[in-house]
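Each lists chain and fold; for instance:
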Amino acid sequence: MSSDLEGRQVVVTGAAGGLGPAVVDALLAAGATCHLPLRGRAQGAGQDARPDARIVSVAGVDLTDEADVRAFYASRPPLWASVHLAGGFRAAPMLDTTLADLRGQLELNLTTAFLCCREAARNMRAGGRGGRIANVSSRAAAIPAGGAIAYTVAKAGVAALTAALADELREDRILVNAIVPSIIDTPVNRAAMPTADHARWPKPAEIAGALAWLISPANAVTSGALVPVYGGA
C-alpha cells in the first residue's frame, strides 16, 4: 500500500491524540499529504512538529466552532479524504452525569464529527472526484453498557451520522465509514487501567492500518460500515 495515497490530500483531526500519530504515520507511508487542524499552536504539538513537507499544520482551529471548521476546510486544496479522530471520554454513572457532562461529550465527539463531515463533503463535492470520510465510533455504542452514558450516547450519534451520510453522499462517490474500537492500547489508557490485560487491546498502528484501507482507492465499494477493531479485547 506504499503508494495508494500518493499525491492525495487528507485531513486528520485529533492528530496529537493517542491514535493520531499512528494514523498520520500510516498515511504518510501510503504517500498522502496530511492536513492537521490544531486547536493550539503548531509548534511542538506532536506529529506536526516533524520536519516533513507532507504535514501541513493549521493552528487555532476549534473543531467545535462552526466558523473555524468551515474556514479550515475551505482553505484546503481538493481533498481525497478526511479522517476524524478528535474526541474525548468521560466515564460516570447516569446519576452522576450532569447536563453539562452530556453536552460536553456531544460537543467533543458528535459535533466535531458532524462539522468536519459536512465541510469535508462540501470540499469533495466541489472537486467532483469523489472521496473518503472516516469517523471513530466506539464499542461502547455498538454494545452499550453502563458507566459512561454520555460518551455512549455521543458515539452512538457518530455511528448514526456515518450511516446516514454514506447514503446521502452515494451519488457523489464519497464513501463514508467508521471504525469501532474497544479500549486502545495507549499510555493514557494503560495508566488509567494498570491491572488490565494490555496485550488484548488493539494497538494504534493496527487501527491505523484499518483506517488507511477504508480511505484508500482500494476500497471502492464499502460505505456506511461500522468496522469493529477490537483486537483480542
Q: What stands out?
A: Residues 39 and 142 are 29 Å apart (CA to CA). The first helix runs from residue 20 to 29. The helical segments are 20-29, 66-74, 99-127, 139-142, 149-168, 187-192, 204-214.
